[in-house]
Design a protein that fits this description.
Chain lengths: 276, 334, 290
């Protein structure tokens, strides 16, 4: 039932919502605007909002001077790789917990959740030393492994909650129709779960892309993803605001777009299904 | 062939016994209905036959072969689910063909069989639609099509009509019965609706709390209920039960009389009572009579009977139609 | 409820995930416990010796620990307070009929998707810079002397950044919860003559109790280990003013190379997080029953 909405109420809430929404979004907008300014204009007080000489030279300079694309590629490989591997391990596990639950399933799920809550800093030392001894420091494979393990519980949980929504009748119907478990998975469960799996992977990709504890501590240059690349602007180069803004814009743009597509899944994934 | 035999089948979940020692012989080509109140274990029994659950003990024979360790896919049965369980991402054609595809039949043969099944069920115009584009009745037909196309040894139906509206339910009831007779394939059908059971079944299994209370033809159950439970469950409106002096006179702990076997008169002999509610349906009249110490008795009269609330009446049971039960609730046979 | 065959298969499919997570949890934790009992400094190789609980005594009595514990609590507490106090009205606002609501939603959620290093640097430079930052310009406009945030109020600055990142999360969860509120219940309250305020107090707020708990617990888990925002802005300073426990452990491990005492600190962090996790698991676990 649609509730009666007075025009006045609509106007007031619209204005307020746009104002506060704009306020929250402003730092990002400002960063994007700054990325199109010259360094000089970026510093100018009073600042210019729209009427400046728009330039794209910062974007070119960023790539030239600091090899943006190498780090972007690292981000893609690390976030993508860890997400894919996590999914390969998590899909069978989630299937098993959703469709063949035992008395211990709930405990296993909660235990998985608790591993996610272990603060990374608690195991920083051994992981760092292990990586050092195994020659994994500043390697993509090392980061892929760590991020994969770190996000595995979230992936299992999200897939579990999606699988749980698929009526077991349908899987049983497939079983009655003579499908083996493998065919049941490939022909029936996976096609039906595609939206859920896709959004799980998307959320995991975002989390891995933005991860900034392990990446900062375990990589420095050749395997460094964009988080680390941007952090390098904290020192003297940070004075080049326009270039910092250009680099930042490029670092967050792809993920911002993906993020907008999966806001709902974000709630579901990060609250472990406690809020839907 | 589709002869199904249950021998001492037992199922428990932990401490809980869901099915206690079920023994049944389902003849090839017969239509057998499992009926009982919710929670009586009828769906579990069906799932045990399907192989979707393991038996805790006992044997299930299909055509003489013990199948308790055979996975559902290999038992040669097909099942129609309460929710229909259609594959939402496949077209009607894909749904019906899935089982044949899993069996590895050649393409041409699959097409031929799907077309035949669709024609039987009037689904031909909808073959390329997705399940969500179909009405409830059409989805029901697809589920049935998926079951018949595999030419199984037996159909298993798990309350397939309970999601349809009343009018459609009556129509589908007839269609399913007709189809089963035409294919002459064994059918095991689960329902909680005793009208469905009475109208569709060759033989009915009445289940209560995991136990088979009686197994027989609809009329056997109606005319010779084995115990109080079956007597009360089969028939609508419910059988009247009377205990006390009238029962003692007949050497029973309880006597039962169906509403349609009680004669009602405004004078004379029998059990005196007062009409408390009268329902006039035209074709029938249902009277709820306050019989004092006898309790509330239901009377069903054919056609219109001009009685109203508060009228004084006398009820006399048809002695040939009286059911007598001992103190354990078992029927006393003459 | 499934047949034995499926159960066996299911166990097999579950094993890799469980085994990996078990290793991931136990091996580093065991190593941390082991290191925490050693004198172990990477700058002084070969001098490893068993020292019992000495590292814990050292770490817990270090004035830096108390300072960082306090900073951690201040940071977590302030960000929680800000995100909830602003998140509730914001979620209520977004639940109203708003023209272009989906666009506003996108704007509000955006900061959550910005990587921590980017948001820290954008705030530090473009917004909070004492001379050329936007806030400095705004304060001169209204005649206030601009604040040198990272020198004079470094913790406040960090809190602002982190709160900005997490406000969207709180808002989104609360909004999701609001949208699941029973509309008929509100209409019934309206029919009963309840005012908007009492509807909010007696229906909406109790409905939000659970999502607020979830927000608090989950944010706490993440906020306890805020790292990148400090790493790229203040480096824990000036002095120890913005060093939280995570940063302290990092600096002991990878700046002073004192593995033993960093491990002891790591265990302290694990214990603190576990206390929070205990409550979160209970909330989520209850939900699993349904």
């Amino acid at each position: 039932m649609a509730r009666r909405v007075t025009a006045r109420r609509m106007v007031v809430s619209t204005v307020a919502a746009w104002f506060f929404g704009g306020l929250i979004f402003f730092p990002i907008l400002w960063m994007v605007l700054t990325s199109f300014k010259t360094e000089l204009e970026a510093f100018t007080v009073p600042p210019s909002f729209l009427f400046f000489d728009w330039t794209t030279e910062n974007y070119a300079t960023v790539q030239e001077r600091s090899d943006y694309f190498l780090h972007a590629l690292n981000s893609i490989v690390i976030a993508g790789g860890s997400t894919l591997i996590a999914a390969l391990i998590a899909v069978p596990a989630a299937w098993s917990m959703a469709f063949a639950p035992t008395k211990r399933t709930k405990d296993i799920l909660l235990w998985m959740l608790s591993t996610k809550m272990m603060p990374a800093v608690g195991v920083l030392v051994p992981i760092y030393l292990l990586f050092k001894n195994l020659g994994l420091l500043d390697t993509r494979s090392g980061l892929i492994a760590i991020l994969c393990l770190g996000n595995l519980p979230i992936v299992v949980w999200m897939l579990f909650t999606y699988f749980k929504e698929i009526p077991r009748d349908i899987l049983e119907a497939a079983r009655m129709d003579g499908a083996t478990i493998r065919r049941e998975l490939t022909y029936v469960l996976l096609p039906m779960a595609i939206p859920g799996i896709a959004s799980t992977l998307l959320l995991n990709l975002i989390l891995a892309w933005n991860e900034a504890f392990w990446t900062l501590n375990l990589s420095t240059s050749k395997a460094a993803p964009l988080t680390v690349f941007i952090a390098s602007y904290s020192s003297p180069e940070g004075l080049f605001w326009a270039k910092l803004s250009a680099a930042s814009t490029m670092a967050i743009a792809p993920i911002l777009v993906l993020g907008w597509f999966c806001q709902r899944q974000l709630v579901r994934g990060l609250t472990f299904g406690a809020v839907k | 062939m589709g002869q199904i035999t249950l021998q001492g089948v037992h199922k428990s979940f932990g401490q809980l016994d869901i099915i206690k020692d079920a023994n049944l012989d389902i003849e090839d080509g017969s239509f057998v209905v499992f009926v009982g109140p919710s929670g009586c274990g009828k769906t579990t029994l069906l799932r045990l036959i399907a192989g979707l659950e393991d038996v805790t003990g006992g044997r299930i024979l299909i055509d003489g072969q013990n199948v308790v360790n055979v996975p559902p896919a290999k038992r040669g049965l097909s099942m129609v689910f309460q929710s229909y369980a259609l594959y939402p991402h496949m077209s009607v054609r894909g749904n019906i063909a899935f089982g044949l595809k899993m069996a590895g039949l050649p393409r041409a043969e699959i097409d031929r069989k799907v077309a035949a099944a669709a024609a039987t069920l009037n689904l031909t115009p909808y073959l390329d639609r997705k399940p969500r584009e179909l009405s409830g009745g059409q989805r029901q037909r697809v589920a049935i099509g998926r079951a018949i196309v595999r030419e199984p040894k037996a159909f298993l139906f798990d309350e397939p009509l309970s999601n349809l509206d009343a009018a459609l339910r009556v129509q589908m009831r007839m269609e399913v019965t007709r189809l089963q007779k035409q294919l002459a394939t064994t059918a095991v059908y689960v329902t909680h609706d005793q009208v469905e059971a009475m109208t569709m079944a060759d033989r009915i299994v009445v289940l209560n709390a995991g136990r088979v209370e009686q197994y027989g033809s609809p009329l056997e159950l109606y005319e010779q209920p084995a115990n109080l439970f079956v007597a009360g469950f089969i028939g609508s409106p419910k059988m009247n039960f009377v205990s006390g002096p009238p029962a003692d006179q007949l050497g029973a702990a309880t006597i039962g009389i169906r509403p349609e076997h009680l004669r009602i008169a405004q004078e004379g002999e029998g059990w005196p009572g007062t009409v408390s509610v009268a329902e006039h349906l035209g074709s029938d009249t249902f009277l709820y009579v306050d019989g004092g110490a006898l309790g509330l008795l239901t009377v069903r009269g054919i056609g219109e009977i001009h009685l109203k609330s508060g009228d004084r009446v006398w009820l006399s049971p048809d002695p040939a139609r009286l059911h007598r039960f001992d103190k354990d609730g078992m029927a006393i046979r003459h | 409820m499934a047949t034995q065959q499926t159960q066996v298969l299911a166990r097999g499919l579950l094993t890799p995930a469980v085994a990996l997570l078990l290793v991931w949890m136990i091996v580093p934790l065991a190593m941390t416990i082991y290191f925490s009992l050693l004198h172990y400094n990477l700058l002084d190789p070969g001098s490893e010796a068993f020292v019992g609980l000495e590292n814990f005594r050292y770490f817990l009595t270090d004035p830096a620990f108390l300072a960082s514990l306090q900073n951690t609590l201040v940071l977590v507490g302030s960000v929680l307070a800000i995100t909830i106090v602003l998140g509730v009205p914001l979620a209520l606002l977004l639940d109203q009929p708003v023209l272009g609501r989906s666009i506003v939603r996108l704007m509000v959620i955006a900061p959550f998707f910005v990587m921590p290093t980017v948001s820290a640097l954008v705030w530090k430079n473009l917004l909070l810079h004492p001379v050329s930052g936007l806030l400095a310009w705004l304060s001169t406009l209204v005649g206030i002397t601009p604040i040198d945030w990272f020198n004079d109020a470094p913790m406040t600055a960090i809190i602002m950044i982190v709160a900005w990142q997490w406000l969207p999360f709180a808002t989104l969860i609360l909004l999701t919860a609001l949208q699941s509120q029973d509309e008929e219940q509100k209409e019934a309250a309206e029919m009963d003559g309840a005012s908007a305020l009492s509807t909010f107090l007696y229906l909406t707020l109790p409905h939000l109790a659970r999502p607020i708990t979830v927000v608090i617990l989950i944010e706490t888990i993440f906020l306890l280990t805020v790292f990148a925002e400090i790493f790229v802005t203040t480096g824990g300073g000036p002095g120890l003013q913005t060093t939280n426990i995570a940063f302290l452990i990092y600096s002991q491990a990878l700046i002073q190379y004192d593995v033993g005492s960093a491990s002891a600190g790591g265990l302290v962090a694990v214990v603190i997080a576990n206390i929070i996790a205990f409550f979160l698991v209970r909330v989520v676990g209850r939900n699993l029953e349904a």
